[in-house]
Design brief:
This protein is mainly α. The protein has 16 helices and no strands. It is globular.
Length: 318
């Protein structure tokens, strides 16, 4: 995929860009119709959400369950689809689609609210893209970290409690155990089997709240280091981090759809903290597009003709 996208020249780039926009112009109305179907047919879910809005629980999960029952659209696929559509909206600020984009956001809001990794991924992506203007905020974060150091024991106790209560924290704790016991990991595709074979022992050691150890890794970090060990895991993430910063440097000078693929890769890198996307076919397809963006000659030509200046994600036309 990277090789194919690499060889798309400037003459064909405009055509490819129009094709990508057409795909989204068809796909977004389809997603809107699906969301409206869930909202209308299962309106009782919205009533439950409003009644329990301040109870501190995620009652929007009912929408995800209905998506799966009615359309076989699970949380992972729904989150990935929403993320890619949002990246498209943010990189194509066309006023004529403003009303449609607003309507899309309103109809899928319950689904977005139920997917925490979608919120986390975009929050971290927005910060990363705009990090050139974030020096003051970074300084505040550093001061905060230094200020809590005298109370580190209290925070460590809170962290330990969370580790034994949250399924993703349990997965990270399991990763540390695996890397310690198996320096080269348990092997690609073996994580689920490993957890199932050791379910009782893992639940006993990693949970004090009767919560069973999740069978899935629930995080790219967990999957990579548990499957391939510390050394290979660091190598894999080193490659991803190099691509991440390379795309960050290119981002201000990119045009659509290169900017779209760059933003999607950056999003999935950060969203992978809370969801296991990596090593799926769709992930490596997007990886190929991102690598093609980095290596394409057209972008080097554009960079030589463009005065680089920081650009924020354009929220104006949402």
């Amino acid at each position: 995929m990277a090789a194919i996208y690499f060889h798309i020249g400037l003459s064909d780039y405009g055509k490819f860009s129009r094709y990508v926009k057409k795909i989204f112009n068809v796909g977004i109305p389809v997603v809107i119709c699906i969301s409206l179907y869930i909202l209308v047919k299962h309106y009782n879910l919205l009533i439950d959400v409003l009644i329990n809005l301040f109870e501190g629980q995620n009652y929007f999960n009912g929408y995800l369950w209905q998506l799966y029952l009615d359309f076989y659209w699970d949380k992972n696929r729904a989150g990935g689809t929403m993320a890619i559509i949002f990246c498209h909206i943010l990189t194509v600020p066309e006023p004529k689609y403003k009303s449609r984009n607003i309507f899309f956001i309103l109809t899928v809001l319950p689904i977005i609210s139920a997917i925490r990794h979608l919120q986390l991924g975009f929050a971290l992506t927005a910060i990363f893209i705009n990090i050139r203007k974030m020096r003051f905020i970074i300084l505040i974060i550093l001061v905060f970290l230094v200020s809590i150091f005298p109370f580190r024991n209290v925070y460590f106790q809170i962290l330990e409690t969370s580790t034994k209560k949250d399924v993703r924290m349990m997965g990270l704790a399991n990763t540390i155990n695996i890397v310690t016991e198996y320096p080269f990991g348990v092997g690609n595709g073996v994580y689920h089997t490993f957890v199932l074979n050791n379910m009782d022992e893992l639940t006993e050691h990693l949970s004090d709240y009767g919560i069973h150890m999740p069978v899935g890794p629930e995080s790219d970090v967990v999957y990579v280091f548990s499957s391939f060990g510390l050394l290979c895991g660091l190598i894999i993430y080193a490659v991803l981090v190099v691509m991440l910063f390379r795309l960050w440097r290119l981002y201000p000078s990119l045009t659509y759809p290169d900017k779209l693929f760059a933003l999607v890769f950056i999003y999935f890198f950060f969203a992978g903290i809370g969801e296991d996307w990596i090593f799926s076919f769709s992930y490596w397809l997007l990886f190929g597009f991102a690598l093609g963006v980095i290596t394409a000659n057209r972008n080097r030509n554009l960079r030589s003709q463009t005065i680089l200046r920081p650009q924020n994600i354009n929220m104006k036309y949402l």
